[in-house]
């Protein structure tokens, strides 16, 4: 793997890091930024999300969080900024010539929480970015989940989610459901 330095400190350089099972990326041990190559990401999508729905995005407008554009750590060109459009919208930095996505610490986890981690390549399209600017009302996550589970199941999921959100011991309930449905500790 080509050595790439991180601008956060003089000696920091990106190291191999498994972002998810079967998804290699690079990680800066100093600032915890993640560099993800599209050439690793796209085959991962093929292998694990081959049933991924084609999405007609209708995302929330991204919260305007002006922050500095950063140079690509591989080629030093200024990276493009792309709104994610999820609930706590943040910007992804992407260098198209290198195919490298920059993720600040915690951003991948946030994409995962919002069900957006399998849609990175779609988020980085002009179409998605335009839709984020033109749509005001609906949430991208809801649209994705509605596509994925179907309208009826999605309505049920929302009800369960709402009920669960009101329970003081929701983590216990979730842990129990998850364990019993996966067959472990099923009693
Ligand atoms: Zn760094
Ligand atoms: Zn670059």
Structure notes:
The chain has helices at 38-48, 107-113, 120-123, 126-134, 140-149, 151-166, 170-181, and strands at residues 15-20, 23-27, 34-37, 80-83, 91-95, 100-103. Helix 5 packs across helix 6 (151-166). Helices cover 37% and strands 15% of the residues. It is globular and about 50 Å long. The relative contact order is 0.13. It has a 6-stranded antiparallel beta sheet. With 187 residues, the chain is an alpha+beta fold. A hairpin with a 2-residue loop joins strand 1 and strand 2 (23-27). It folds into 2 domains: 15-137, no CATH class; 150-187, no CATH class. The protein contains 7 helices and 6 strands, in the order E-E-E-H-E-E-E-H-H-H-H-H-H. The protein binds zinc ion (2 copies). One zinc ion is lined by residues 72, 74-75, 77, 95, 97-98, 100.
Keywords:
187 residues, alpha+beta, 2 domains, six-stranded antiparallel sheet, 7 helices, 15% strand, binds zinc ion
């Amino acid at each position: 793997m080509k050595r790439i330095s991180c601008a956060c400190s003089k000696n920091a350089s990106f190291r191999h890091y498994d972002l998810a099972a079967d998804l290699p990326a690079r990680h800066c041990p100093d600032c915890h930024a993640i560099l993800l190559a599209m050439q690793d990401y796209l085959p991962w999508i093929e292998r694990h999300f081959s049933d991924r729905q084609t999405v007609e995005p209708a995302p929330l407008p991204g919260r305007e969080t002006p922050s500095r554009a950063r140079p690509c750590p591989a080629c030093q060109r200024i990276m493009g900024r792309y709104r994610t459009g999820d609930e706590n919208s943040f910007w992804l930095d992407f260098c198209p010539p290198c195919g490298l996505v920059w993720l600040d610490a915690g951003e991948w986890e946030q994409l995962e929480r919002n069900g957006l981690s399998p849609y990175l390549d779609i988020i980085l399209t002009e179409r998605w970015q335009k839709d984020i600017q033109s749509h005001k009302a609906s949430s991208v996550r809801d649209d994705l989940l509605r596509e994925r589970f179907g309208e009826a199941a999605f309505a049920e999921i929302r009800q369960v989610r709402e009920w669960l959100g009101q329970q003081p011991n929701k983590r216990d309930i979730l842990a129990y459901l998850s364990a019993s449905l996966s067959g472990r500790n099923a009693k």
